[in-house]
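Bit of a strange request maybe. I'm writing a small parser for structure token strings and I need a real example to test against, not something I typed by hand. Could someone generate the tokens for this chain?
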Amino acid sequence: MSSDRICLLTDDGSLITVKLADALTKQGWKVVVLSFPESTMTEKLPLPERINHVILSEMTEEHLKQKLETVVNNYGEVGAFIHLNPVNVTKSQAKALVKQVFLIAKHLKKSLDEAVKQGRSWFVTVTHLDGELGLGENSKFESIIGGFFGLTKTLGLEWQNVFCRTIDLSPDLDIEIAVNSIIAELYDPNLLISEVGYSLHKRTTITAEN
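Reply from user aminoacidic:
Good idea to test on real output. This should exercise your parser:
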């Protein structure tokens, strides 16, 4: 990613946000964390002062647009977007988050398209279904979260030069392993994969068969 562009990372309310922001910063990324209203998540840990931070106080498109403009004015154009979805969400929270990420995609399209001219750009969503793309034995998650898979798959078809992927992490993964798994996917040279799962024992992808 170009050094003058930033990575916009959403806050899932957990320690993963801090650990991923720190890990990306150590690799030379300029990270800005975007926090959703507390009503969208069950748990919310405070962020350290060292992390660049922008807070949404409401979930309207107009407010989102204003905050994204604030991000650009204060930190720079966006070259990567990573959405960390909270582990435990209600149906209404999941619905609100999927809608908001859809709107973020709408408003970041131009920036991510232009970032490709200077190197790879990213649109990545991270879920916590079962680490097997919802195909495992664990069914204790809101099905609407599957909307992230559909969104990134669609964007991957429309934004052919932007790296679009959903990463499904098992809720049982250690935080360090979860963070390392996300970073590994960001640098994956295979642009044909739109969804990847990480469970305790394996990496899962879906391939088409003739």
